[in-house]
Amino acid sequence: MHIPDGLLDPITIIVLWGVTIGFMVLAYYRISNLFKSTESDKMIPYIGVLAAVIFAFQFVNYPIPGGTSGHLIGGTLVAVILGPWASLIVIFLILVIQSLFGDGGITALGANTFNMGVICGIVGFYIVVFLVRLLNHSSMKKEIKVAIATAIGAYISVVLAAFLAGIEISIGGIIPIQVSVPAMVFWHLFIAIGEAIISALIVYYIYKVKPDLITTESIMGV
Amino acid sequence: MMDFFKNHKKPLIYALIIIAIFIVVFAIGFPLGFLTQDPDGLERVIIDFRGETWLENLESVWFPILSWIQNEYVAGILGIVITLIITIGAFKLLKFARSKKEKVNSLPE
Question: What is the pTM of this model?
Answer without folding.
Answer: 0.85
